[in-house]
Specification:
By secondary structure, the protein is mainly α. The protein has 3 domains: 1-57, no CATH class; 136-343 and 396-427, no CATH class; 437-493, no CATH class. The chain has helices spanning 12-15, 46-49, 67-70, 80-85, 108-131, 140-188, 194-222, 234-237, 243-246, 260-267, 279-283, 291-308, 315-340, 345-370, 374-394, 408-423, 430-434, 450-454, 458-473, 478-493. Helix 6 packs parallel to helix 15.
Length: 498
């Protein structure tokens, strides 16, 4: 596969219809970028590459050439500042800064403008109270309003974290189900002889790739990215007949360049600068369907086929495979529930209003007791109260691109690497790995391999197992356990102790 990211040499982007999906392709994708070149180092590939019936479809122009490039899309065209304040956070990176001094993941940038407003407001009230007229009121309101504010922020934080935790649970279930289903397909589904066995192998690989395609398509759906032309998805589902492929529009997946004012507004959390996350869905001129469910339909069809041809013959494994499909469907439903049922708007508006009313009333209550310290006191209180409210608002949707959102790219990459590990070797055979000389079946009591113990009697093996328990549970010193091991070993070898 050519992962250079260049358009086809014949200008496939100009000739392939953007909305009609991929046309049949018979040549290996490694020759995609050279299928019309007649000179150069790839001239010997001309005959095979010319077997392509039509140019490469537009959404297959840029394909990843490694797992790292496949699942780090958000960092391709971004600078260091953008990667620092936008996420999700890379779990592989480690910071040695104290937690209180870290900015990556902090809501401090989003509080700059609100805190500046509070600072100006508290300064104005303090100046008026000092030079013109005393505006202070009894600070009994601190106690009364503080209880209401604390209750509201507690409710906001708990509900937001519950949604964040639910999102993580569903993705954990997705990872677990992916592992189980891939093992059932790769190990428990047999392969027939001859050409049929080759076909079975390729179909197994297709099904396992569909498991990854399900996870990646679910990630994009949760982020309101409806196309199939993304680098991590095009190579997995481009050959499937889906609504998303029929609705493919190259302009949809090309992000518009942000102005410096819009970027600054997003960094500072200005609501007017934030785009509607569903804008790509609204721009679509064709039905988008439901790509994760369509991928799941293809997985289900594969399971039915292996049951029908007898390669998945054990009824228990058949039941497990069908159960895994139901679990994947549960993941889709659960994540959509988390995404589509935020805190009711009445609660969100009321909590925001309560927090701001409390912050704006603070200078009137603090001036009588603190004087000029009212200004820094109001700023500190505003940071605490508005900070908790902002955190609740940020993690309410755990599937987005904020630093504190769930790292869905990392989860998809984890699934991809684990599926690669599963398929890296044929299904293991018990007779092959059990009979190896370095299979120390009674380790650490004995370093004799399985073939050596196979020549002994069952009574000797059971005696050694009993001695192993005694050696491991001996209340004495390590030397006593070592002595027991030596005695048992000598007895089994029928050799006198030295």
């Amino acid at each position: 596969m050519d992962g250079g990211g260049h358009a086809p040499a014949d200008g496939g982007a100009a000739h392939a219809p953007a909305a009609d999906g991929p046309a049949p392709v018979t040549a290996d994708v490694r020759h995609a970028n050279h299928h019309t070149q007649g000179t150069g180092p790839h001239h010997n590939e001309k005959s095979s590459s010319q077997e392509r019936l039509t140019p490469r479809p537009t959404f297959l122009e840029n394909l990843a050439n490694s797992r790292d490039s496949q699942f780090m899309l958000s960092q391709h065209d971004s600078d260091d500042l953008d990667r620092y304040f936008h996420g999700p956070r890379d779990l592989d990176k480690h910071s040695k800064w104290p937690i209180m001094l870290r900015m990556h993941g902090s809501i401090m940038p989003k509080l700059i403008l609100p805190i500046a407003c509070v600072a100006g407001w508290s300064t104005l009230i303090t100046l008026i109270s000092h030079f013109v007229h005393d505006l202070s009121v009894d600070n009994i309101l601190l106690t009364v309003l503080g209880f209401v504010v604390g209750l509201s922020l507690s409710f906001r934080s708990s509900t937001a974290y519950e949604r964040w935790a639910d999102g993580r649970k569903y993705w954990s279930l997705l990872i677990q189900t992916s592992r189980n289903m891939s093992r059932t397909i790769w190990v428990n589904t047999s392969e027939r002889e001859g050409e049929q066995g080759k076909e079975d192998l390729l179909r197994k690989l297709t099904a396992i790739n569909l498991i990854l395609a399900f996870a990646v398509s679910l990630k994009h759906k949760l982020r309101f990215e409806p196309d199939v032309g993304y680098d991590d998805l095009a190579g997995l589902v481009g050959y499937l007949d889906t609504f998303a492929k029929d609705a493919h529009d190259r302009q949809v997946i090309l992000p518009r360049k942000r102005t410096i004012w819009k970027a600054a507004g997003e960094y500072l959390g200005v609501s007017f600068a934030e785009s509607n996350p569903r804008k790509l869905i609204k721009r679509s001129k064709k039905p988008l369907g439901h790509l994760p469910l369509e991928v799941l339909n293809h997985i289900s069809a594969y399971i039915d086929s292996v049951i029908e041809n007898g390669t998945l013959s054990i009824s228990l494994h058949q039941s497990q495979a069908i159960t895994y499909i139901a679990q994947l469907n549960e993941v889709v439903t659960g994540t959509e529930r988390v995404l589509d049922t935020p805190l009711p708007a009445a609660y969100s508006i009321a909590i925001a209003q309560i927090a701001w009313i409390y912050v704006l009333v603070l200078p009137f209550q603090l001036y009588n007791s603190l004087g000029w310290v009212t200004i820094p006191g109001s700023i500190v209180a505003a940071y605490i109260i508005l900070g908790l409210a902002t955190i609740g608002s940020e993690i309410e949707n755990p599937f987005g691109h904020d630093v504190n959102d769930l790292p869905l790219d990392t989860y998809c990459r984890q699934i991809a690497l684990e599926l690669d590990t599963v398929t890296a070797a044929p299904a293991p055979k018990v007779a092959d790995f059990c009979s190896r000389e370095d299979n120390y079946v009674l380790y650490p009591l004995s370093t004799s391999g399985q073939p050596a113990w196979k020549d002994r009697s069952v009574e000797d093996i059971r005696a050694a197992l009993r001695a192993k328990v005694i050696a491991n549970c001996s209340p004495g010193s390590a030397s006593n356990a070592s002595t027991i091991v030596q005695e048992v070993t000598a007895k089994l070898n029928k050799q006198p102790l030295v």
